[in-house]
Amino acid sequence: MSGAQRLDWVSRPVSSLQGDVVVPGDKSVSHRSMMLSAIAEGTSHIRGFLEGEDTRATAAVLSQLGVSIEAPSAGERIVHGVGLHGLRGSDKSLDCGNAGTGMRLLTGLLAGQSFDSTLIGDESLSKRPMRRVTDPLAKMGAQIDSQDGLPPLRVRGGRALHGIRYELPVASAQVKSALLLAGLYAEGSTEVIEPHPTRDYTERMLAAFGWPIVFSPGHAKLEGGHRLCATDVVVPADFSSAAFFLVAASIVPGSTLRLPAVGLNPRRTGLLEALQLMGADIHVENRSESGGEAVGDLVVRYAPLHGIELPEALVPDMIDEFPALFIAAAVAKGRTVIRGAAELRVKESDRIATMAAGMRALGVRIEETPDGAIIDGGSIGTGTVESHGDHRIAMSFAAAGLVAEGEVTIRDCANVATSFPGFLELANGCGFALSTTG
Ligand SMILES: O=C(O)C1=C[C@@H](OP(=O)(O)O)[C@@H](O)[C@H](O)C1
Ligand SMILES: C=C(OP(=O)(O)O)C(=O)O
What we know:
Belongs to the EPSP synthase family. By secondary structure, the protein is of the alpha+beta class. Helix content is 28%, strand content 26%.
């Protein structure tokens, strides 16, 4: 995967950002659309599929398991579903690349198959905790072997699964989704209760594919023994990718950007609220619905930001947007306090530590806490930061460079292709001064 190849970026200060920025398809929706189409009966047409390494890895795993997938054009997939019991085992390992979502959801899906599978990932994914899915799946009757709860995961087939009622210890859409996917193959009902509601794409998409499911924020319940019927999926633009541009235009004086047709599922838009609390000028135009999801154009104009105490209730709704928020806080007047975000420590990198180290290297005053950070806004200096191969860290520091005192060099940016292929070109198209080195 891209992590093997070293790529550094240099981001330079600019005078303003202008224009329309069309960000690629949503990563969460793309993973799920591929998985459900694969085990549905009939042919599903996916439009807006994210051409990122994470979601392509999921598609590659499913073709390895015998699903025929056509890619007539970029962002388009025609998936010939094999039905709930039509996947075929593979002798080779199934490579999820950098994708926590891919590995955790596929673990749930594969726990109900008749064959054994081995799921592997890249260096970063191989360090991410999997007991959060393997423990509850074991309660459902699955057998998944690993060393110390880390990938590779050996998922044993031929187990009779039974439904459980599970209260998630940590808010996680990935864990919830893994259990619901295993629940398709289980006898009886599978019920998931979350401490805070998380993104509900799995629930909504299961319903769209015709599986009876009851769900409300923080709760989902389904029974095994039904069938999925192929359907067409339109993937909205990814709010998490839009996030870098929301922050960038908010901090560069004189900027105005329009981000058309971005997915606005309320479980994803916490950053919008957080930035508005900080004084950002962002509004939504042309609200509509696409593929059952709320979408709208985001219009963002520069506005002076001030620090806030981030309401903890927003954390799950912006779990991937913290690196971007940290940059907004570094520029804002006064102090920003972030709490209740310990999950950031087990993402593609430890995002609290990685952001704190990078911001300190640029002269920003930041204190790390176990579950967040305290950031005293002011100016951003010049220097070199390590992204630790974490796509969201790399793109966040690219935004920081726009208002830095000089150049910001960002090391190890190849993994941006996991979630946002074409970021560099899109960013430069609206006024970033971002170049590659090496
Ligand atoms: O379900 C999903 O698609 C995702 C859930 C979140 O992870 P957690 O479930 O670990 O919070 C998020 O960080 C990830 O990028 C995508
Ligand atoms: C955490 C992320 O993804 P994943 O868990 O799928 O690797 C992310 O995209 O920020």
